[in-house]
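Our platform keeps sequence and structure together, in a single record for each protein. Because each token names a local backbone shape, the row as a whole describes the fold. One such record is reproduced below, unchanged from the form in which we store it:
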Amino acid sequence: MAYNPQVVDAKIVSNNPKNGLFEVVTQLKDRTVCRLTFGKDAAGVAVPTHISRLLKEPCPVCRKDFLCNCMSRYKETISSQALSLTGTP
């Protein structure tokens, strides 16, 4: 079964206008909570640089209850859904 992440809630938790970095915390439909870190390129477009799963629920992909890198495969999908909910600061 392929994993299909769906963002149900997203909010901007930090913003640094000096260097264009900001963080968004997202909650997925399967209760997984992730933190996305964004940077801005030369054109001012938000680019996802890092994703980390907050350890509140086991990983929905590998079912590990500790740190894993499974969410990095879905970084583009989750970041596009999160930006559509929150917008770019």
